[in-house]
Amino acid sequence: MVQGSQQAPPAAGRPVTPADLRPAQPQQMTGAESIVRSLEAVGVDTVFGIPGGAILPTYDPLMDSSSVRHILVRHEQGAGHAAEGYAYTSGKVGVCMATSGPGATNLVTALADANLDSVPMVAITGQVGASLIGTDAFQEADIVGITLPVTKHSYLITDPADIPKTIAQAFHIASTGRPGPVLIDVAKSAMQAMTTYSWPPAEVELPGYHPVTKPHAKQVREAARLLATARRPVLYVGGGAVRAGAAAELRRLVDESGAPAVTTLMARGVLPDTHPQNLGMPGMHGTVPAVAALQKADLIVALGARFDDRVTGKLSSFAPHALIVHADIDPAEIGKNRRADVPIVGDLKEVIADLLPELAREHAQHGKPDLERWWKQIDDWRETFPLGYTDTEDGLLAPQHVITRIGEIAGPEAVYVAGVGQHQMWAAQFIKHQRPGAWINSGGLGTMGFAIPAAMGAKVGDPDRVVWAIDGDGCFQMTNQELATATINEIPIKVALINNSSLGMVRQWQTLFYESRYSNTDLHTGHGTVRIPDFVKLADAYGAEGIRVDSKGEVDAAIKRAMEIDDRPVVIDFTVSRDAMVWPMVAAGVSNDEIQYARGISPAWDRED
């Protein structure tokens, strides 16, 4: 039986290394007990998972752990997304657990999601006994082979002696360099066998894994020179700035440079939306000033951003006159989509910290560049093309109004978790994001079903903050069973269901590009007399509070009522118009120059050099 750990766990938010831990005396125990003891040693306090035959030997000693809380979810995908949400708000590595075969494969979506969005996560799965591997045994799946493309690393353990060092390595890999998910698959026979446990493990070297954190001084100086002399600079800030904890350094860089900044979907809040130099979100549904500034820039300083297609539009026409400074912890990202004139590999917090004195030195020697003309143009775009919306013609709620009021009533100290689709874009646009880590969404993979379990994990990771899940009726139906988990475990999340009775973003594309032929996008959840399902009744069945809002006058009262309830989850079913669309918009595969401010309205900016 596993007793309490003798080691001092590392501080939350700091990468785990064996040097952080005091040695423990070697002890005889099963491999399963070794797993639990090792999780305690690396500071794990929460695991999301579901037991099954192959992982069952580990669940028995887990029951006796005094420091690791297990939260029983209703689906393994929910366990993975909950681990992601936990990682976002706690600053620690999220942990999930599943059995072999379908249990493990149900984690794949969450692993892929964490991989694209750089979320530190460790997934532990059971595997059939070592002698059965490769025989197509019951519930056998090659989860290591399946997950190698969507994780930072995947392990298979067949020898119980390897458990402590593998767990130490996995947590180190997940939390250092560019964060990401690591899978540990453990054969059932290794869990059942006896082993000699000691911590820290003797072998923790990782040949070939040495993330570069300190940037090259020459590259930093060249970046400073370009930024000090550019006439139309833009700071293009990605999610890497959030992962690096570089918000304070970024704020100083924005102030020192005087340059406009754009914050991507994954970076919302790392620079407050109220900062006068923040142009908002770029890309397919970004603001006109953000998109236009990138297109007209003569220098783009990309900080922890990927130049992904949702930002660049047609890549060959993206920012045609701009030199590129690209800083990222992951060298594979630099030059992957757009050639970098000044590549900088390093931890973004250190990159900006080194860049600041070099930029100040350039300014002291040569003076700050005159950006007055550039800002005059940007301010003209801001004045002419602000974010906005009109009331719906069908008399139903405008979803933008609902989301705006949630942001205004809950405020910047709340955590906002979005699913994927129109509601995600509106939440990114109309909530004032003022601090890093308060905005959580599935950006790279675009995973429907992300919001509910991720919000649940976010609340566990930071229980003192209000957590709002802003979800669509399509996304919600993929993982709403986790409301049971939230109710039973007293995790009082708030759910704003933006119910347009449709797969909204798909319907928008069908309206614009498929002659309004609505093939298989009507969900029958919110309009008319029949609601399948009735979300208020569903919430009640799960032990949550269900509220329905059909009119504008009811919106504020419902949100305030949800804010007052703190002993169970709340689901507010907002019946909104199915014809509301997300604007601005750059259609997939076209140039950002073809952005539409609203349907049929294309901003005309000066395209001359």
Descriptive notes:
By secondary structure, this protein is an alpha/beta fold. The chain has 3 domains: 18-197, Rossmann fold (3-Layer(aba) Sandwich), CATH 3.40.50.970; 217-384, Rossmann fold; 399-575, Thiamin diphosphate (ThDP)-binding fold, Pyr/PP domains (Rossmann fold, 3-Layer(aba) Sandwich), CATH 3.40.50. It contains 23 helices and 19 strands. The strands form 4 sheets. Strands 3-2-4-5-7-6 form a 6-stranded parallel sheet, sandwiched between helices. Strands 15-14-16-17-19-18 form a 6-stranded parallel sheet, with helices on both faces. α13 (309-312) links the parallel β11 and β12 (323-328). α3 (76-90) packs across α18 (451-461). The N and C termini lie far apart (72 Å).
Largest β sheet strand count, sense and barrel closure: 6 strands, parallel
CATH class label of the largest domain: Alpha Beta
Order the strands across the largest sheet as they lie in space.
3-2-4-5-7-6
**Count of beta strands:** 19
Q: How big a fraction of the residues is strand?
A: 15-25%
Radius of gyration: 25 Å
CATH topology of the largest domain: Rossmann fold
How many helical stretches?
23
Structural class label: alpha/beta
- Would you identify the CATH architecture of the largest domain? 3-Layer(aba) Sandwich
Arithmetic mean of pLDDT: 94
How many structural domains does the protein architecture include? 3
Q: Based on CA inertia axes, which overall geometry fits?
A: globular
Helical coverage, percent range: 25-40%
